[in-house]
Amino acid sequence: MADETGTDPFDHDVVVVGGGPAGCSAGVFTARNGLDTVIFDRGRSSIQRCAHLENYLGFPAGVDIETFYDLLHDHAAEAGCAVVPDLVESVEHGDEGFVVRPQSGEAVTARRVIAATRYDAGEYLRGLDSEGRSPSGSRTKSGDDEDAMFETHEYDGETQQHFDAEYADADGSTPVDGLYVASPYEPTSPQAIMAAGHGARVGDAVVEAARRERGYPEGLASYYDWVRPESERTGEWSDRDRWREFFEERFPDDHDLSPERAEEIREREIDRRFDMYISDDEAERRRKEGQRRLLDHVDDDLVLEAAREIEAERETDD
User: Fold this and answer.
1) Radius of gyration (Cα) for the chain, nearest Å?
2) How does pLDDT run across 77-108, given as a tens digit for each residue?
3) What keywords is this UniProt entry annotated with (predicted)?
4) Which end of the chain is more exposed for a tag (fewer CB within 10 A), N or C?
């Protein structure tokens, strides 16, 4: 997103640290909204400790972890994310935004960072929060200004520190401006499907923050991402002037936008809403393409075996 000079001071709008369910889910939402998003994944997501994933909706017989992980990354890449197989060693404050330093590649800058790792959770974030405050404004458990994100406890006679899974708010936001946490998050971290859902919520919060930064007033900053059949765009909602009335009602009375900027935002939102409706032919095209893409992740021998069974059934019916 360029500044007033027409240049972008950042390499990326969003850097996601961690390519598991939480990180990829967040990245899909940010990238689909046009935010330049890169996911750093070291290939050691906690889900890879599972032998087989059996409680993730959409896989009636479960899914092997390798296939599931490939599907996550394929979806993120299709949405527009760059997936980089590298370990992030540190995230630091830059002149603006953040400087993200991976283990192997060059450091990159980002407006916002989403932390989405459970192993060594938050170690790469040490030193970012020098305020020593929790989201509620109280002192954190560590009591150390340099370790405000960490809680201290005694174990087997030793003092240990762990990232505080309650550090971030429910939408992932933190006291550090531009830093979001998708994982670890206490209520959701242990289950992949819950982590993915929370990642989506965090991604949505980042999208809304970016929209506010672009000048969208509070009544228009909220965002959802879905498509509907064109047949449902009927009556008054097929009329662009009705949508203009709809959005005019959502501009707060005290907004400070110029009339030209307000009109630009309104018309852009109407275009986006209209684009959410697709024809039956387009829906069918997407259905077939979606199934073809799934075939990319199915073992070839199984595809051939299924094809032979289908052919045998057809011959029997004939």
Assistant:
1) 23
2) 999 999 999 999 999 999 889 999 999 989 99
3) Flavoprotein, Oxidoreductase
4) C
